[in-house]
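Q: Start with the shorter request: fold the first protein.
A: Done. Sequence, then structure:
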Amino acid sequence: MVVNQTRGKVLATKARLALRARERMKGLKGLEGLKPGEALILRPCFQVHTFGMRFPIDVLFLDGQGMTVKAIHSMRPRRISPWVLEARTVLELPAGVLRETGTLVGDRILLQPVPTGNGMAFLREDDM
C-alpha cells in the first residue's frame, strides 16, 4: 500500500516493486494501463521515460526519507522526465491520482508492504 502521510490519503492499494534492472527497464511497457489503486515502485531511480507506453501516468520522485521532491502530473507517452538527483525512489501511478489526492512536493509518502502468506511483502512483477 502507498499512503500520502501528509494528506492522509491512500495513493495505491496494490503496488508492484521493481528493484532489479530488468524490472525497472520493463516498467509499465506493454500494459494497457494502470487500474485504479495500482502503482509501480522503482528503486533505485532518479529518471523515468514513457517510451513504449500507451497511457499517461502520474510520477512521484521520493528522496531517501520518503519525501516528495518532484511530482509530474499526467506524463504522456513518449516523454522523458528530468533527472532528479535527490530522488531514490520513483512511484508511477494512474494519471489523475496526484490531483485527486492533493499530493504535492514536500509530502511524506509511506510505502507499506501488504500481508502475504509468508509475512509482509510488496508485489513482485509476476504478482500483478
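Q: Next, the second protein, separately.
A: Sequence, then structure:
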Amino acid sequence: MSAVISGMILGFAFIAPIGMQNLYVFNSAMNNPLKRALLYVFFVWLADSSFSVVAYFGMGAIINSNQLLKLIVMILGGLLVVYIGWSILRSANQVNLNAEQNQLSAGKAFVTAFIVTWANPQALVDGSLMLGATRAKLADADVIPFIIGVLIATSLWFLIITIFVNIFKNRLSKRAFVLVNLVSGLIMVGYGIYFLFGAAQMLLG
C-alpha cells in the first residue's frame, strides 16, 4: 500500500503542471456535455497511462538514442499540435453554450488524446528519467503497485478537472468560453512551434 501511495504522490506531481494534456481536458470539459467530456478524458487517461508505463520501464530512451527517430517525432508532433491549436483558434468564436454535442467525433478525440500526450518527445525522455530512476530504487515487489498508484493519481486528476470545470462552466459567459479557447489554441500552437524549432535546430546542428 505504501508503494501505491508513493506512486500516487509522484503521479500527481507528474501530471499537475499545465501542459497540452491539461489544456485539452479543460477545453473538452468547457465545450462538451459531461457525458461526452468524460469519454474524451477517458481517452486522455488511456494515452497518459501508456505514456507513463513506457516511461516507467525506460523505453523512452529509445527515442533519445536515435536522432533520426527523434527528429521525425518532433516534426510530425509539431505539425500535428500546430494543427490542433489552429483548429481550436478557428472555432473559438463558434461556441454554442446549449450544444449537446461537440463537432469532434469520438474517433478524432481518441487520436487527438494520443497526439497531445505523445507529441512531445522531450516529455517522454524526461518521464523516462524520472519514472525510470524511481523504478530502479524500488524493491521488486513494489514495482507494479507503484505504477498502479501513478495511474490512479492521473485518473483522479483528469476526472476531478473534468467534473469541476463542466459543473461550473454554466456560470461563465460565452465570452469566457471564447477566451479559454483562444488561450488554449495559442498555447497549443506555441507548443507546436517549439517542437518544430527544436527539429530545425537538430537539422542545422
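Q: Describe the second briefly.
A: The two ends are 48 Å apart (CA to CA). The first helix runs from residue 2 to 15.
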